[in-house]
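Figure 6 in text form: structure in, sequence out.
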């Protein structure tokens, strides 16, 4: 039995290969190469543009307009955002999605000391990258110029805690999709500073909905898979050095369902040849994908379950991030007591684009 996560073609590509795990006599292994494993990606830039053009015009009337430009288009949303990590592929994808949605991307970003002073071109937007030594004064100046500013953070795991402390000190709300760092300290920093934030290691809305379904199952049917063995394989682009936060979250649900599993048993695939031959990742998406497979086997090996979700590209995360920004802007303006949110909160709010 396999549970396949299906969403619009321009967001997630659902693979239809042979079984990723082949069970037999108490063992399982990854299958060999097959031409049928190759997934054809049907989405294109033109189809993505068409999908965006079908999105209804929208505005957030509750947020006061800080601009005096009378020529601003009707679908312009007055939420200026600063995308840190703009030189990375994820940062660029978010900038493109934000621009298409009508958000205003400020021409400033934070990066490493080596990137300081560089200009990054994303579409028609030129963004100047500032190094660590300029961060606090730069961010304070931006917040003064753009009172509704929201920071989007897709940097590196080692910068998570320092960045959160900076955002809290200056008092700017932020959306963080960066994984890693000391997560307990991260939440404590936000709570102490009382800034508003959406913090989620997974920004893909449909993947988050799948995770929510897993959590509901774990809560309502604890121990349902007691005694079952679990195999987990996750494949990401070679530049991703850490283990997928999504895989950890799914495994946590399986553990609540009674499965014994050590996180160190996760099979990480980062070699491009293995990704093509063993996993079935399309070559054009080797530099940006997330393939997850979970295989459960009963103690007597007569029953098995497979859960799989495959993502090609970064558009699903970029679109989810834009929804999180719009959601957070509403929370900031309403002055609600709750300050820390995740993508499940964004989904529950509804009315997403």
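Output sequence:
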């Amino acid at each position: 039995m396999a549970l396949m996560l299906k969403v619009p073609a321009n967001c997630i590509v659902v693979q239809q290969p042979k079984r990723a795990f082949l069970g037999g006599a108490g063992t399982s292994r990854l299958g060999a190469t097959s031409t049928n494993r190759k997934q054809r990606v049907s989405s294109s830039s033109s189809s993505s543009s068409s999908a965006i053009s079908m999105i209804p015009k929208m505005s957030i009337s509750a947020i006061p307009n800080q601009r005096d430009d009378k020529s601003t288009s009707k679908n312009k949303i007055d939420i200026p955002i600063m995308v840190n990590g703009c030189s990375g592929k994820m940062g660029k994808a978010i900038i493109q999605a934000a621009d298409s949605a009508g958000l205003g991307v400020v021409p400033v970003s934070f990066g490493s000391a080596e990137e300081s002073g560089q200009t990054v071109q994303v579409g028609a937007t030129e963004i100047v990258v500032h190094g660590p030594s300029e961060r606090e004064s730069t961010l304070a100046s931006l917040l003064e110029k753009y009172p509704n500013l929201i920071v989007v953070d897709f940097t590196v795991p080692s910068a998570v805690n320092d960045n959160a402390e900076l955002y809290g000190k200056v008092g700017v709300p932020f959306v963080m999709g960066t994984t890693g760092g000391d997560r307990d300290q991260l939440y404590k920093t936000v709570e102490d500073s009382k800034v508003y934030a959406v913090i989620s290691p997974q920004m893909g809305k449909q993947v988050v909905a799948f995770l929510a379904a897993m959590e509901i199952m774990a809560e309502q049917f604890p121990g349902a898979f007691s005694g079952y063995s679990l195999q987990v394989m996750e494949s990401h682009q070679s530049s991703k050095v850490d283990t997928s936060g999504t895989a950890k979250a799914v495994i946590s649900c399986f553990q609540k369902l009674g499965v014994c599993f050590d996180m160190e048993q996760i099979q990480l695939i980062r070699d491009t040849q293995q990704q093509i031959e063993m996993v079935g990742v399309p070559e054009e998406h080797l530099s940006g994908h997330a393939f997850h497979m979970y295989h459960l086997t009963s103690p007597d090996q007569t029953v098995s379950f497979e859960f799989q979700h495959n993502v090609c590209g970064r558009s699903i995360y970029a679109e989810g991030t834009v929804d999180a920004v719009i959601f957070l802007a509403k929370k900031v303006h309403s002055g609600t007591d709750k300050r820390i949110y995740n993508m499940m909160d964004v989904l529950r709010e509804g009315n997403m684009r």
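Caption detail: The first strand starts at residue 2 and ends at 4.
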